[in-house]
Amino acid sequence: KTVFHEYFHAVQHAFIDSLDYQRRDELLGPTWFVEGGAEYMAQLYSEKLLNDGTIERSGMNYPSFAQRMEWKMLGGKETLDRECPGMSIADITYADPCSYSAYELGAWGHAYLQHLAGEEALLEIFHPFVEELGWEAAFERAFGMTSEIFYIQFETFLERPLSEQLAILPQP
Q1: Of 77, 78, 131, 165, which has the fewest CB atoms closer than 10 Å, so is most exposed?
Q2: pLDDT digits (tens, 9 = 90+) for 105-123
């Protein structure tokens, strides 16, 4: 899974030509978007490849995609509440004591966006236009809402029962 996570960072960077570090950082977006995207895609595609036999399980007892995502929801919320009470995923940086929540709840942010906008929105709409439009405008184009509206809707989603949250996940 870690290899897939790091590979997806290469995919994210491949869509940005600018060599200016600050510009690249702005185009990549908030920590939750960068790390959550890599984490979600790693979880989703490692599961797809395990299920279709491309990757052999070799007798390992690897938890299902849904189980791993359940742990991310519970752990991400717990870490956020304990380490950064009242903070939104929008504001988490790598320097915050709850930075791991950006990975876990960020993965759920991407699951939620994919549920709303479709599987192709991130790779076929957002990333190809991020350098031309900027992060916010590419986000709006891909997901049909501003990031501000997303944050409001996502906070409501985080309060739903776990069974409703898990119900939005694709079946890889």
Answers
A1: 78
A2: 999 999 999 999 999 999 9
